[in-house]
Amino acid sequence: MVQHTPQAVWPDDPAPLAIDTAPVPAYGRGSLADLLPTLVAGQGVPGYSRLMGELAPADRNCVFLIDGLGWQQIKDHPDEAPYLTSLLASSRGATGQPITVGFPATTATSLASIGTGLAPGQHGLPGYMVRDPESGRLMNQLRWKPYTDPRSWQPYPTVFQRAHEAGVHTAQVSSPIFEHTPLTEIALSGGTFHGRLSGEERMDLAAEQLGAADRSLVYTYYSEVDGKGHRFGIESDAWRGQLMYVDRLVQRLAEQLPPRSALYVTADHGMIDIPFDEESRIDFDEDWELRAGVALLGGEGRARHVYAVPGAQSDVLAVWREVLGDRFWVASREEAVTAGWFGPSVDERVIGRIGDVVAAACTDVAITASVNEPNESAMVGMHGSMTATEQLVPLLEVRS
C-alpha cells in the first residue's frame, strides 16, 4: 500500500502547469466517501467514525443521489429548482457548503466511493475506463465490460452490508435494471433491493422503507439529469426539464419522511458543456503527437488514463505536458498517487489500473477519441476532472 499525506487545497485560480495546484478532493473530512461512514457511525454500526462531525446523528437516514447534479448547477438555476435552492443553506450540516466527490468525478468511481466508504485508491475503480493489469485490456467500470469477477476487482464490503449485519434495516430503491449489475454488487449491495420505474414510485417507497424500522438506511437514485446533460448539455431545455422534475421528486420525498429521519440529497459529479470546436475538443485519434508511444487510452474526455508502450512512459509524459500542460494537470502515475488524487492511500492491486500518465482538465476542454469512442466523443456535457464545477456537489439536508 502506498501512503502519503495529501494537501487537499482548493485554490481560487490554480496555475495549470503545477501538479501541486490541482485541487485534491477532501478525502477523510468532506468527500462523498465520508458520508455513509458518518451516518452509520451515528446509528451505532461498529467500525466506522463520524468523519463529517457537522452531520448530526439520526436513527433513520436516507441518501438520494441525483446523477450529474453538481453544486454549481443548483446555484445557477434557482427558477428551475426552487425547492433545492431553498435547501442550499442546509448543505453539509447547515454550513451551507458543498462536499467533493473524489477523482475522477465520474459515476462508477463515485458510486463505489459512496457505497464502500472508501476513496478510489482503495476500492479500485479509479476511472470510467481503466486497464486491467492481468489482461492488459481496458475495462469499462460503468458497464463492466469485458466482464471481470466483481469481488476480485473490489473485495471490500459495502457500508450497506455492514449496516445490515449490525441490525440496521437497509434498502436500495432504484431502477430495476440496476438490481443485478456488477457495479451494484460491489458498490451498493446489502439489505434489500427494490426496483421501481418511475421517480414518484421510488420516492414513495424510499419513505416507506425509511419508516420500516427504528434504525434504517435507505439509498435511492435518479439518473436522467446526467443523461440529458450528456446528450443535450446543461443549458438545454431537456436538461432544465429534468432539473424541474427532480426538484419536485426531492420535495415529494421530504414531505413523507417518518419521524427521526434525515434526508441527504447529493450527487456523483457536476457537469460542464464542452464546445464543439478544435480548441475545446482535442481528438486523440487524429493527433499523432499525443498518440506516439501510447498503447491504450483510458479514462474519459476530462480525466484521461494514458498507458504507454513499455519503455515510453517518460516520453509520453513529456509530450503530453508540452502539448496540453496549459489546459490539463498532467502527472505521472507516481505524481498523481503522491499528490493524493486517488485518496490518502492506493492499494497495490490498484496501482496498475492507474495510467502511466494521468491528465485532468482545468479549463473547458476535453480529449476525445472520435474513432474509438464515437458515443462519448459526441456528448455535449462532460465531467471527470477536479474543477469546482465537476467536483463540488450538494449535501442538502431535511430532517423530521
Termini separation comes to 43 Å
Major sheet: order of its strands? 7-6-8-2-9-20
Strand content: 15-25%
Decide which structural class fits the backbone.
alpha/beta
Describe the 3D structure.
- The protein is α/β, with parallel strands linked by helices and 400 residues long.
- It has a six-stranded mixed β-sheet, sandwiched between helices. Strands 12-13-16-14 form a four-stranded antiparallel β-sheet.
- Helix 10 runs parallel beside helix 12 and helix 11 packs antiparallel against helix 12.
- The chain is globular, with a radius of gyration of 20 Å.
- The N terminus is likely disordered.
Layout of helices and strands, plus pairs?
Elements: E1 2-3, H1 35-42, E2 60-66, H2 71-76, H3 82-86, H4 91-94, E3 99-100, H5 107-116, H6 120-123, E4 129-131, E5 138-140, H7 150-153, H8 159-165, E6 169-174, H9 182-187, E7 192-195, H10 199-210, E8 216-222, H11 224-232, H12 237-254, E9 261-266, E10 272-273, E11 281-283, H13 288-291, E12 294-297, E13 303-308, H14 313-324, E14 328-332, H15 333-339, E15 345-346, H16 348-351, E16 357-361, E17 366-368, H17 374-377, E18 381-382, H18 388-391, E19 392-393, E20 396-399
Parallel strand pairs: 2-8, 2-9, 6-7, 6-8, 11-17
Antiparallel strand pairs: 1-15, 3-19, 4-5, 9-20, 10-18, 12-13, 13-16, 14-16
Helix pairs in contact: 10-12, 11-12
What would a concise description of this structure say?
By secondary structure, this protein is α/β, with parallel strands linked by helices.
Main attributes of the structure:
single chain, about 400 residues, disordered N terminus, four-stranded antiparallel beta sheet, alpha/beta
